[in-house]
Specification:
Layout (H helix, E strand, L loop, with lengths): L1 H25 L3 H7 L3 H22 L2 H29 L7 H22 L1 E10 L6 E6 L10 H12 L5 E4 L10 H10 L6 E3 L11 H4 L3 H9 L3 E3 L3 E5 L2 E5 L4 H4 L8 H5 L7 E5 L6 H7 L3 E4 L13 H4 L8 E5 L2 E5 L16 E10 L2
Parallel strand pairs: 1-12, 2-3, 3-4, 4-5, 7-8, 8-9, 9-11
Antiparallel strand pairs: 2-12, 6-7, 10-11
Amino acid sequence: MTMWIIIMWSALCLTAAALVYVSTRVCRFKQIKKITEENEKKKALIGGGIVLGAFLIIGFLINFMNAIVCVVYFALIWLICDFIFMIIEKIRKVCFSRYYSGGLALIISIAALCFGWYNDHHVWKTEYNLTTTKNIEPLKIALIADSHLGTTFDAEGFKAHLAEIKKQNPDMLIIAGDFVDDGTTREEMFKAADALKEMKNVYFVFGNHDNGYYGPEYRGFSGMDLIWALEQNNVKVLLDEEKEKNGIYIIGRKDFSFEKELGGHRKSMQELTAELDKNKYMIVADHQPADYDNQAQSGVDLVVSGHTHGGQLFPFNQVGKWIGANDRIYGHERRKATDFIVTSGISDWAIKFKTGTKSEYVIINIRKEE
């Protein structure tokens, strides 16, 4: 908890500094200088008013978390552009007559945020090809996580994405948590769960948002209601348990939040695999990529996760790993004989921009080594 309080206060301080910096930069445009007749107080008021007004508009239109993202991006890019032009001016030994770095900063910032918005709201297919020494038939797994239903698409949008995934003809679909969010309505949850009946061999594990942080009264349904809705549509909900399908184990873990935030208990990897036949291929679905050493030690073959949103924002992509919250942020990694895959998610949570990654569903092809 202390770590997250430090992060929150750091973010607030960074936002305040970004607002001040961008306000002082706006004042340097020739048009502002002309209007204020070079009066410093007037420039400060107009510059601050423009930036604060834009910040409040974005906050009301989207939310204030995204307003913070926008102003921090503007400040970082503006700082870089100012530094580059300062170097150029020193080399030329002549100052530019116009504030070109400011104009360039505006263009790059807007382009970066538009790019991030598109990456967040458009869904790509990402494919991995893995091999194993174990005796299995070729296997195609579809993986999704972090739909946070109601953020970038509703139940109808989710159904449309499932239709695209179905075209890939996967042998199974794994949903690695955060299917819903605190803002998801009961009606949308049931509609999205109903859409899953069109898919075959669907397995689901809980994420930290699926139980809801504010209680069932806030959004109109509980974690148990979610389980019921999924199971009514032939989805296998795995809570520290495994299912065997065609000689393959699918092991679903309770989310780390069951222990960390809810004071509960989840089985260790050793407990989950103790009675399993190690000659069979073992797949683990674990929402948070935060137990890699134990998972590799247990001898499972594949671990799939979400939660990180692929790092979300450049250049802050690796913060989760730096602070020790995650073992990996995005992509494929192999430790010992275990493959690990983290997806950036098919949607998003509160932040509506992905400047360091993109939204995706994942196809994993597995075959026996020749």
